[in-house]
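Feature request, filed as a ticket because there's no other form

It would be nice if the structure record came with a short human-readable summary line next to the tokens. Right now we just get the raw output. Example of a typical job, pasted below so the devs can see what we mean:
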Amino acid sequence: MRTALGVWRWRRNPLRRPTDLFEAWVAFAALVCVLVVAPAVGWVAGLRVDGTLQQAAHQQRQERHLVPAVVLRPALESAAAAGASASASADASAQRTAPHRTQIVATWTAPDGSSHQGTVPAAEEPPHPGERFRIWTDARGRLVGQPLDPSAAVFHAGMAGLAAAICVATLVETVRRLVVRRLMHRRYIRLDRAWAAAGPDWGRAGAGS
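Raw output as currently delivered:
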């Protein structure tokens, strides 16, 4: 609103310089870009990212399957890690560490009917041989990550759209500041020239000062 009023004020002001009106219009254009163009760019970017992620999530849900697995035994590296942890000093054990899931050897049957065996993270602590849990695999039984959740895709798309809008608004404000800085530089140059032209007569009798 202040920018629009500034443009209107400089329209017929007798003290207006050409750069004043240009600066006001630059500020008005920047305001329109920030309020209209930036949200539009963010909306379009969010829609495109959401479409891409939703398509990826749908494809992953088609290609990935939850299959039952059976615990056989703890993995060798897990046992070694447990021994090392038990022999640690009291000071080291007092420090807070990130939770670690035990690695186990499990067996499972793929959707295509093939049998597989491998090392996977335990579903529960402590794991017991014979326990059943579910893991994500592809059609051939190879371990894969959990499919992308549609709600998570919407969240990531929203964040991408917000980031795009912020980038556009930042770019617009940067350009506006550069233009204003250039205008101020030109004003100082003209002021210096005018002062240099009037300087020799400054303070002299009959010079109009």
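Something like this underneath would help us a lot:
The first strand starts at residue 65 and ends at 74.
Confidence is low (pLDDT under 50) at residues 78-98.
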